[in-house]
Amino acid sequence: MSNILIIKHGxxxxxxxxxxxxxxxxxxxxxxxxxxxxSKPYQSLFEQCPYVDHVLLDERKARWNFFYLYELMSKIxxxxxxxxxxxxxxxxxxxxRKYLFNVxxxxxxxxILQPGETKEAFDQDGVLKRFQVQLQRSSISTExxxxxxxxxxxxxxxxxxxxxxxxxxxxFSSSKLPHKRWPHYQxxxxxxKNKRPxxxxxxxxxxxxxxxxxxxxxxxxxxxDRPTNFSQLASxxxxxxxxxxxxxxxxxxxxxxxxxGVVLFGAHTSxxxxxxxxxxxxxxxxxxxxxxxxxxxxxxxxPLLKS
Length: 307
Fold this sequence. Notes:
alpha/beta, Rossmann fold, 2 domains, six-stranded parallel β-sheet, five-stranded parallel β-sheet, 11 strands, 15% strand
């Protein structure tokens, strides 16, 4: 039995998106042992993924930390992987390929480039299309790659859900990406309360976001007094009537659980580039998120709600 290694460090949205890819890899290597190398925030999530057998942790310490690199190299070499499928496609994982892991059969967006094709040109396609090409050039069928299904991650036993219909809001973003935050959520909340008093509005803050919720007139869902984990968050999103989100991980969860909703985009990238739009989940775009009004968002959301 061969050992296959997948590399995916993050982020949440990226991990949601590879659900179909992981299924395709599992189907292709049905008789192999599949491990995934990831970072600490996603370790427990991957431990419940039906498409991988083992989860390995990469702390991603500085490259000048030779003791850590040697430890990581030893851990990987010990597993005797016959093939690596790099879904992170970063300069760090390219460093691993060149100098650390010593695995000859390596699939990445660097290794599958054809003669005359540049990485810059390859990266112009949407993320799922790029993964499709990467797998196909690695002789792996891509039946599910373009249609991720994140339902494997949903906590079916999570019971802390509102008793009446609700809209899930994702008004936050990484502190490193403040340009993704739409600034008019509170105004939108007031519009919805006036127009649809039968609908609750719900947020599920992550670490460091609980205090921010005090600025919003919404129901805050937690796991006791702690933020929900990713599987509980997926359950909250899956049961929502509509999702309204910034371009962050929860938006990708909504898109790839088949939820109805909208994601709000500024000029930082495009919905096509991040492969987030589906039949039920659409993007509202504005060159400047400040100029995207609460009333225009409501106009897009209202038809999605049951009357």
